[in-house]
Amino acid sequence: MRLTKCALIAATAVSFGGCTAVSAQSSQPATATTPAAQAQHPNITGVWEIWPDPFAGDENTFLELPVPGDGPKLREPYATEWKKLRDERDALLRAGTPRVDPSTQCLPEGMPMIMGAIFPLEILQTPGQVTVLGEFLTQTRRIYLDKEMPALDSLNPNFYGFSTGHWDGDTLVVKTRGVKEDTEFFEIPHTVNMTITERIRLTGPNLLENEITIEDPERLLEPYTFTYGYRRNPDYVIQEYFCEAEDPLLKFNEDGTVEMKSGEDF
């Protein structure tokens, strides 16, 4: 996936381009995160792109990732409200004037949207920690290995929440809590009690899958599970990419929609 294309592709809608400290004490032996122990685990370090590429062949246009899986099974009235919101968004997208969303306002994607990998991700696997670096907005997500999850009321809600992980054979199991309620994932409503569980594993030498389950009984009738796939790209170098206050490609309208600039706008 190349930057010229990604710059015009949606995250939760359309993405373009440009606390309180918490201490968690480990209940596991220190040897669990030594370099020797780390070497026993699958190597997921590298630059990863979403795969199969849902945008292959499409350049310089407004596109969105589809809502993954079969979509969430929401409780009412959230199900009706969410469907109406998605229908309105789809209509605006077809008209070529998608609604402004957090990503177009240069806000971080947060969890679990960052794992949708609209732009490439770089994963760094080090003793005691797995770090996910998103090219879009130069985002950083940290997964602390073999740490206890702090109590929810001790977490400061934020974009990525607090993530702890452990290896279960060849699978990295990650649990995330503390994602703030206004962090959007396809505009699906959630509470601060939402829990995200990921099961990340290699399916080939350069193929990775991430099975994601969202649990939030106050909003969801049942857990929402879907899978993202990635392909390692050893030739791609992650670029610094921050949002610019004035995007050279886009025009923001007073009605809350966004358009591509034409030649006469430059």
Let me know the largest β-sheet.
9 strands, mixed, barrel
Q: Number of helical runs? A: 3
Task: Note the beta-strand portion.
Answer: 25-35%
CATH overall fold name: Lipocalin
Roughly how many Å is the radius of gyration?
19 Å
- Can you tell me the overall shape? globular
The mean pLDDT is: 82
Number of strands: 11
Q: What's the CATH class label?
A: Mainly Beta
Helix percentage range: under 10%
CATH homologous superfamily caption: Calycin beta-barrel core domain
Give me the side-by-side strand order of the main sheet.
1-2-3-4-5-6-7-8-9
Task: Write the SSE topology.
Elements lengths: L2 H4 L28 H4 L7 E5 L27 H17 L26 E6 L2 E6 L4 E7 L16 E7 L2 E7 L17 E10 L2 E9 L8 E9 L17 E3 L5 E3 L6
Parallel strand pairs: 4-5
Antiparallel strand pairs: 1-2, 1-9, 2-3, 3-4, 5-6, 6-7, 7-8, 8-9, 10-11
List keywords for this structure.
single chain; 266 residues; mainly beta; Lipocalin; nine-stranded mixed beta barrel; two-stranded antiparallel sheet; 3 helices; 11 strands; globular; disordered N terminus
